[in-house]
From TrEMBL:
Its main location: mitochondrion. InterPro entries: Cys_alpha_HP_mot_SF, Cyt_c_oxidase_Cu-chaperone. Keywords: Chaperone, Copper, Disulfide bond, Metal-binding, Mitochondrion. It is found in: Mitochondrion intermembrane space. Belongs to the COX17 family. One of its GO terms (cellular component) is mitochondrial intermembrane space. Cu cation binds at C39, C40. This is Cytochrome c oxidase assembly protein/Cu2+ chaperone COX17. Gene3D superfamilies: CytochromE C oxidase copper chaperone. GO terms for molecular function: copper chaperone activity; copper ion binding. It comes from Handroanthus impetiginosus.
Length: 79
């Protein structure tokens, strides 16, 4: 039986395992990061929130503020 000596095979498996761990960590980081800038995310709820605050004041617009925060969280932002 020719081929790769067992010692070298163990090294190859160890290196491959380390690459897999790094790939998994990088993939989970990419999945958790927002795909947009916060200023560009959720334009609909942002507009409603801003208009409400300008017209009625922040204290009267909790509903829209929370709706916008919920949308931002869904986009991956930590707000």
């Amino acid at each position: 039986m020719g081929g790769v000596p067992i010692q070298n095979l163990t090294s190859v498996i160890s290196v491959q395992s380390q690459k897999d761990e790094r790939s998994t960590a990088a993939a989970s980081e990419l999945n958790s990061k927002p795909k947009k800038k916060i200023c560009c995310a959720c334009p609909d709820t942002k507009k409603l929130r801003d208009e409400c605050i300008v017209e009625h004041g922040e204290a009267s617009c909790e509903k829209w503020i929370e709706a916008h925060k919920k949308c931002l969280r869904a986009e991956g932002f930590n707000v």
